[in-house]
Recover the amino acids of this structure.
């Protein structure tokens, strides 16, 4: 059983960047089609990452590098723990800590625009984190366990047992995934 969990965690580490890039590309194409435009190719995020990696690295200060590295480590840890079937409460906590590290990296630059983005991100986090914690408690209430494997193996899905929690979580996912109206801190373009 632990071998399967290790394989799932390794598959996450190897495939998540590519699947995430493809999902982002599909999202861009879908948004463009909704606006009556053709939009970029589906693999445009991969082109963007390639272009970013070929640019000259500019570091404002060394603490910024530490915060961004810890952000990356927490993000990888979060996904690995989730796909290995670990503790859901720890997954939510590690994901929150990764976002805090990114905000601290933005605050460390002392630039006015990065500080504005960090403040907006902190405000959004204060809005959705309590609901995220309530969802974790709801999972425990529905199944008696915080472990992801136990939640997957449940006879009745948690959504059927606690539909109100699911509706609340679906609403905060719009904020957490930084979709339109809540994407000011990290958008590719600022809205009017």
């Amino acid at each position: 059983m632990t071998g399967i969990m290790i394989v799932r965690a390794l598959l996450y580490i190897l495939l998540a960047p590519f699947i995430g890039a493809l999902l982002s590309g599909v999202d861009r194409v879908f948004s463009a089609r909704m606006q009556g435009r053709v939009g970029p190719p589906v693999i445009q995020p991969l082109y963007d990452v390639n272009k970013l990696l070929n640019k000259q690295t500019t570091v404002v200060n060394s603490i910024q590098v530490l915060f961004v590295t810890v952000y990356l480590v927490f993000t990888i840890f979060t996904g690995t723990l989730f796909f290995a079937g670990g503790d859901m409460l720890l997954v939510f906590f590690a994901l929150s800590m990764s976002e805090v590290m990114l905000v601290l990296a933005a605050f460390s630059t002392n630039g006015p625009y990065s500080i504005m983005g960090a403040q907006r991100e902190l405000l959004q986090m204060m809005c959705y984190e309590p609901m995220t914690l309530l969802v974790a408690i709801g999972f425990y209430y529905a199944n008696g366990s915080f472990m992801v494997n136990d939640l997957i193996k449940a006879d009745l899905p948690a959504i059927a047992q606690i539909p109100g929690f699911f509706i609340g979580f679906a609403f905060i996912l719009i904020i957490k995934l930084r979709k339109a109206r809540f994407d000011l801190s990290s958008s590719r373009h600022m809205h009017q």
